[in-house]
Every structure is written in structure tokens, then in C-alpha cells.
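Weekly sync, protein design subgroup
Attendees: M.S., D.O., the rotation student, P.L. (late)

Item 1: inverse folding check
M.S. brought a backbone from last month's batch and wanted to see whether the design step gives back something sensible before we order anything. D.O. pointed out we never logged the input encoding, so this time it goes straight into the notes. C-alpha cells as presented (736 positions):
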């Protein structure tokens, strides 16, 4: 496993190429990895041919952490990357580590293609995660906080406050904090409290007798989640500067006031992480009610990690480990707040953030909107041809505008939409509710099991039902992950359908920071396919026979396999064969094996993966023609694009599905073809080739499973894929 510190180095502003940099376009035979892989008689590859899924995901988190160390990003964005890393690691422990621990308890047996036992994976995770978290706090304490202090943005410690500030903090504790604190003594009548997942808590050591004459040695003080973790000091005490103090410091300084007449000899913050995955049976009678019950259980799942500060005495940390039945390698000592995700504060300092940009409206919608009939302008644009949006460079407004136009247009009869992540305050939901109140037939397929959005989605379902919409929860056992909108409109006694398909969620906030494609089309075949998929989701019957869309869990995997087979056949016939895939993750073994087959047949394969990759590229004899790269930058890469050269009859699909077992076999997913030649070229250039040319934010995966950051040669111009799109799309839109 790669050393964490080596992966933090960012010398993108230097013209020199360091020894750890790599340019995969210049790779030669000497750069190929030598691995003792084998292939059995049944065609399967040996475990050494694969990378462990969870270790690969952990490597993605390290690439995010590396952004916090990079001076290329504005200062407050570097702080934000530290916070993102913390949030990512929380979920990693809550879901992935917790799942591996469950497998360990069921028997330490290797069940995945990589051949590692659960205990081996946990040990490797522990080693890498401990180093990574140490590096995270080093970046915070040695790089980010000192740089913020130079800008007069400070997180003050208790001993850094002057007399006036200390007096104010005492009043704040008395008036705002103390009334909502509930100290809990540990004694025979008060056993150790049941603590909520990821809550901030303090353990205090105490001397003396309480009001009832009892000798109390320990007490737990939970910090209510209703209290802000970062508190801005009043302007009059700081000359208007951005000076803050942590809630943990306020409680620590005044914890003695919670135990009058007793002596507090120590106070230490800690945080417990629990299993937060939901255990929902496939045969439930009411999925909404079952989820509501499971959401409460999430707060008190099995323990998986304990965080304490570096100055916490060993006796205290050992006591907590014993209480939570955790091992030493599940203890993480941190040099700072135990929960950096709560360190975020809304600083209004534009020069320390990314420069804002205009989210452009696509030209066809601007042109039609300028006409007199603005209430139905989008339908007119879609009748003239397909329209592509590329978020966040294009605005999310067209999606919302289309729904509002449909909600108020007397010619619209019905609206059907899938919702994976949303909220009752979403304009998408508001427009659907308005359409239902206006007498439209509105059907919402809401996926209640979208992780960590379950409660919000239940609220959305109830809200839409109250407005008169028909709400269904998809198929039990299969998450509805497809992004589909269907509008049925009567035009001159003829029924016409309008469709939006996307690679990302119908979530306006996500559309500002996630890269995603959306296609607006009135194509009759695609519209009919979408209509059939909604029938599947709301009714019963055999799988739909679709004309153009690829549909998981029915046809998508088989079609992808056949497309790769076609490239293999072309390569064996001496013809050009080329595959480019951009997805979030690649884990599905049969697709990996087929890509290995294609590489050995001579097919050129370029993979652009955001996070997980279980395939080993650049291995001699196995995957010499496969390269894998990852882009980590300002926006979260989320587009899914599949390209196959097909002997010149090129195929290009966008979709909602990653190349993972869950997406291809256990979710409802849709991939849609890009048939318009102009849009095809746009996606091929902007969404694929552009990312293959990135020589600043790109990382390349070696055959040994190590990611290395690409660095440009001395005479090579800088190319940053996301910056290129910001400039190009804005320039093209302005020039038109």
C-alpha cells in the first residue's frame, strides 16, 4: 500500500518532474507491472488479478485528502477538502468497515475475487487509515490553520483568549450551553449511557462526594447536537475579525461547573462511530414503515471506531475501548477536534474560495425562451432536436423550468418522474406538487432507500401524496437509481411525449458541484422506452422490450459484454478497436474479465474512474493495453459515459449506472444512446478526451494498486479538465 505522505505531494506549480510522477501516455514495456497472475481452464482469473474493493475506495479518500495539501486550491477550499475527507471516512467506517466486521463475525472466509480474508482487509485498512488521519491533522495544524491565521481567521484555544473574551465565553456557557447539558455519572444506578452514532461526548474524571454522599469517579457529558460546534466571537471583542472558538473548548473550560462541590481532574472529548447501514428485508409489507423503524436503529448500530484526542490518558482510552468492546487498532488518536466535519463555518471571504462562475443556459432553450410563448418554450426546443446539458457548467434551471411549464400547461396530461435524492423544499418536488394540484396525472417513483436520505425521501413521499400525486416506492429488492422524467402532452389530437434522462440526481444543490449529463429529447422510440420502464416500476409484468435504452437489471450488463466482444472481434481482425469508459467505480468481475480478454486481444482501453477500481491495469500479459486514471478537483466527477469504436460505427451511451454488481444486477438503471452527431462529438471531446488530457488533477493507477499523480513535462502546457470546461462552455455560450 502506498505511503500516505507520498500521495499528498502536489508540485503542480513546479516545472520539474519528480520521481513519483507518471505520464501513462509515455509508458513503455519497462513500466509494466509483473504480477504472478494465472488463468484457469474455465477462463477465470486468479485472485491476484484483482484489487480489493474497500482498499481501492480508501485510496480514493487519500486522493481527496491530497487536495487539502495542494496550494493550487484556495485556502478555504483546502479546509473544505479536509472536511470532505472526514465525512468520507465517517461513511467508510459506518458502511464499509462495519460490513467487513460483520463478515468477520460470520467466519473469516475470503468471498471476494481478490482472495483477501476479512481480517486481512481490516488490518490493511487500519494501517492505512491511521496514517491518513495522522496526515489529515498534520495538514490542518501545520498548513491550513497557520495559513488561515495569516488571514486573521482563527480558531482560538482557551489559553489564547484575553480577559474580555474569557468573560464572554463564561457567559455564553452559562446562558447558552449549560442549560442544555446533561452530565451523567457512572455508578451502579447509572450505567454507561447509550451514545448516539458520531455524537460529541466528554468523559470527566472526578474527585469528591456528590450531594448524596456518593464517591463518583467518572461522568459522561454528551454535547447536544442542537449546539453549534464553531462559535464566532462578537465583533466588539475581535475588531470584526473572523475569530472563533470550538464548543469543545467552551465545555472543557467550564465543565467543573456541572459538578458543584467536586473536583474535576480531567476532561477528554471522544466520539464513537457505529454501523449505519440499514438492514431491510426484501419481504416487508410496508417499506416506508419498515424504513422509519430502521432509521432509529441506525443511531445505535454496532460500534466500529473510537476517536479520542492525543492527550487522552491511556487509562481513559482503555476504559472506553473496553466499554465499547473495541480493539486497540480501532482507536484513533487525533491532534484536534474529534469531528472535523463540524469545523465548517460560512466564511464570506470570496478571495479565499473558488471564483464564482455563471451556470450557462444551453443555447436551444435560450433561443426558444426569447420567443413570445415562453410558457411552453422548452417543448418547442425539444421538438426541434435533442438538447444536452453538462452540469455544473450548464445550469440546472432547464430541468426545473420544464417541470414548471408542464405543471401549468393545459395541454400536459401526465408527468412521471423518478426521485432518488431530493427534499420537500426542492423546486422539483414543488413543481410536481403544483402539477398534481392543477389536475395533472403525476406519478413519482421515490427510492426511499437512498443512503442517508431515507428520512428526507419519506417526507417527500408524504408531501406529494398530500398534493394528490401517485407515489410508488419502486421494486422491493431493487433500488430505483435511474434518472427519468416523462411528460405526456396532447398536441392537435396527437399524444407526444417529452423526456429527460440524466446521469445524476434531480437535486439542484448537487447539480452545482457534481459533473453530470442530462439529455432532453422528444425521440419517439426513447420516449416509448421510458414509458415502458415506468410501467415496469408501477405495475407488474415481463421485462419491457426496449428499442434504444439499455436497462438494468435486464439488458445492460449483457449489452456491455457484447459491445466489448465486438471490439475483441475487430481487434482480432486487425481493425482498430477502442473502448473508453468514464464511471465512478469498476468492481463487476465479469466485466473486468472481459476487459482483460479485450486487452490481450489488442483492444485499446482507457478507463476514467472517480473512485473504486478492482481491475489491475498495465500488468504484463494481462492488461498491457488498459490504462486507468482518476480526476479529483473542484467538482465531484459523476458522469457515466461508455464509448465503443465499433469499427467506425461508434457507440456512445450515457447512463445512471456504474460498472458495479449492485448497479448492474440489483438496481433499476438506464443507459441512453447519444445519436445526435453534434452532441456525440461534444461528449466525446469534453467528457472523455478532455479528461484523458488532464496533466494536473489526474492520478494514474499502476498494476500494483498504487495511485500516482500525473505531472506534466517541462515543455507541456497545463491542461485541467474541469477548468477547460469552465472556460470552453462559457466561451461557446457567450459567443453564440
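Designed sequence read out in the meeting:
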Amino acid at each position: 500500500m502506498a505511503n500516505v505522505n507520498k500521495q499528498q505531494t502536489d508540485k503542480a506549480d513546479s516545472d520539474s518532474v519528480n520521481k513519483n510522477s507518471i505520464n501513462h501516455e509515455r509508458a513503455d514495456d519497462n513500466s509494466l507491472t509483473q504480477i504472478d497472475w494465472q488463468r484457469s481452464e474455465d477462463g477465470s482469473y486468479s485472485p491476484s488479478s484483482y484489487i480489493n474493493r474497500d482498499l481501492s475506495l480508501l485510496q480514493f479518500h487519500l486522493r481527496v485528502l491530497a487536495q487539502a495539501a495542494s496550494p493550487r486550491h484556495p485556502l478555504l477550499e483546502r479546509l473544505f477538502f479536509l472536511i470532505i475527507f472526514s465525512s468520507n471516512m465517517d461513511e467508510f467506517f459506518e458502511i464499509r468497515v462495519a460490513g467487513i466486521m460483520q463478515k468477520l463475525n460470520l467466519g473469516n472466509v475470503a468471498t471476494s475475487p481478490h482472495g483477501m480474508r476479512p481480517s486481512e482487509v481490516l488490518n490493511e485498512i487500519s494501517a492505512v487509515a491511521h496514517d491518513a488521519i495522522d496526515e489529515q491533522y498534520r495538514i490542518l495544524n501545520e498548513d491550513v490553520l497557520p495559513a488561515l491565521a495569516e488571514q486573521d481567521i482563527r480558531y482560538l484555544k482557551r489559553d489564547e483568549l484575553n480577559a474580555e473574551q474569557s468573560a464572554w465565553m463564561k457567559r455564553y456557557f452559562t446562558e447558552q450551553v449549560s442549560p442544555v447539558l446533561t452530565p451523567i455519572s457512572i455508578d451502579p444506578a447509572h450505567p454507561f449511557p447509550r451514545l448516539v452514532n458520531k455524537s460529541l461526548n466528554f468523559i470527566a474524571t472526578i474527585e469528591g462526594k456528590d450531594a448524596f454522599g456518593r464517591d463518583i469517579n467518572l461522568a459522561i457529558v454528551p454535547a447536544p447536537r442542537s449546539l453549534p460546534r464553531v462559535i464566532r466571537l462578537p465583533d466588539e471583542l475581535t475588531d470584526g475579525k473572523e475569530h472563533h472558538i470550538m464548543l469543545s473548548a467552551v465545555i472543557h473550560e467550564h465543565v467543573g461547573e456541572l459538578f458543584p462541590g467536586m473536583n474535576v481532574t480531567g476532561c477528554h472529548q471522544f466520539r464513537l462511530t457505529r454501523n449505519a447501514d440499514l438492514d431491510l428485508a426484501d419481504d416487508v409489507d410496508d417499506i416506508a414503515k419498515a424504513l422509519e423503524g430502521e432509521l432509529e436503529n441506525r443511531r445505535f448500530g454496532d460500534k466500529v471506531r473510537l476517536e479520542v484526542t492525543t492527550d487522552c490518558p491511556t487509562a481513559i482510552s482503555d476504559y472506553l475501548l473496553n466499554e465499547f468492546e473495541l480493539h486497540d487498532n480501532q482507536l484513533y488518536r487525533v491532534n484536534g477536534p474529534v469531528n472535523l466535519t463540524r469545523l465548517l463555518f460560512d466564511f464570506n471571504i470570496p478571495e479565499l474560495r473558488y471564483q464564482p462562475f455563471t451556470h450557462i443556459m444551453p443555447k436551444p432553450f435560450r433561443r426558444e425562451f426569447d420567443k413570445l410563448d415562453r410558457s411552453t418554450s422548452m417543448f418547442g426546443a425539444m421538438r426541434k432536436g435533442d438538447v444536452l446539458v453538462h452540469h455544473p457548467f450548464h445550469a440546472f434551471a432547464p430541468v426545473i423550468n420544464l417541470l414548471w411549464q408542464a405543471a401549468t400547461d393545459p395541454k400536459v396530461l401526465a408527468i412521471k418522474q423518478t426521485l432518488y435524492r431530493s427534499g420537500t423544499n426542492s423546486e422539483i418536488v414543488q413543481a410536481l406538487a403544483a402539477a398534481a394540484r392543477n389536475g395533472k396525472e403525476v406519478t413519482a417513483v421515490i427510492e426511499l432507500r437512498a443512503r442517508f436520505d431515507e428520512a428526507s425521501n419519506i417526507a417527500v413521499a408524504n408531501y406529494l401524496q398530500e398534493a394528490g400525486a401517485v407515489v410508488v416506492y419502486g421494486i422491493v429488492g431493487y433500488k430505483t437509481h435511474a434518472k427519468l422524467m416523462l411528460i405526456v402532452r396532447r398536441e392537435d389530437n396527437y399524444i407526444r411525449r417529452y423526456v429527460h434522462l440524466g446521469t445524476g440526481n434531480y437535486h439542484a444543490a448537487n447539480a452545482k458541484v457534481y459533473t453530470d449529463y442530462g439529455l432532453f429529447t422528444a425521440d419517439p422510440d426513447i420516449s416509448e422506452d421510458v414509458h415502458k420502464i415506468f410501467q415496469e416500476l408501477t405495475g407488474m409484468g415481463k421485462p419491457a422490450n426496449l428499442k434504444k435504452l439499455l436497462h438494468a437489471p435486464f439488458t445492460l450488463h449483457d449489452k456491455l459484454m457484447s459491445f466489448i466482444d465486438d471490439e475483441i472481434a475487430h481487434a482480432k481482425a486487425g481493425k482498430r478497436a477502442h473502448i473508453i469508459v468514464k464511471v465512478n467505480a469498476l468492481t463487476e468481475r465479469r466485466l473486468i474479465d472481459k476487459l482483460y480478454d479485450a486487452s490481450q486481444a489488442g483492444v485499446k482501453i482507457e478507463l476514467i474512474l472517480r473512485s473504486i477500481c478492482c481491475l489491475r491495469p498495465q500488468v504484463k500479459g494481462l492488461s498491457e493495453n488498459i490504462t486507468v486514471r482518476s480526476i479529483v478537483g473542484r467538482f465531484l466527477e459523476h458522469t457515466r459515459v461508455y464509448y465503443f469504436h465499433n469499427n467506425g460505427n461508434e457507440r456512445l451511451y450515457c447512463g445512471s449506472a456504474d460498472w458495479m454488481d449492485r448497479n448492474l444486477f440489483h438496481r433499476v438503471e438506464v443507459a441512453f444512446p447519444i445519436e445526435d452527431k453534434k452532441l456525440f462529438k461534444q461528449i466525446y471531446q469534453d467528457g472523455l478526451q478532455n479528461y484523458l488530457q488532464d496533466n494536473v488533477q489526474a492520478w494514474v493507477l499502476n498494476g500494483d494498486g498504487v495511485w500516482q499523480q500525473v505531472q506534466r513535462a517541462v515543455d507541456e502546457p497545463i491542461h485541467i479538465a474541469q477548468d477547460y470546461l469552465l472556460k470552453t462552455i462559457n466561451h461557446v455560450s457567450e459567443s453564440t
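Discussion: Residues 118-150 form the longest helix (33 residues). The chain has a mean pLDDT of 89.
Action: P.L. to compare against the previous round before Friday.
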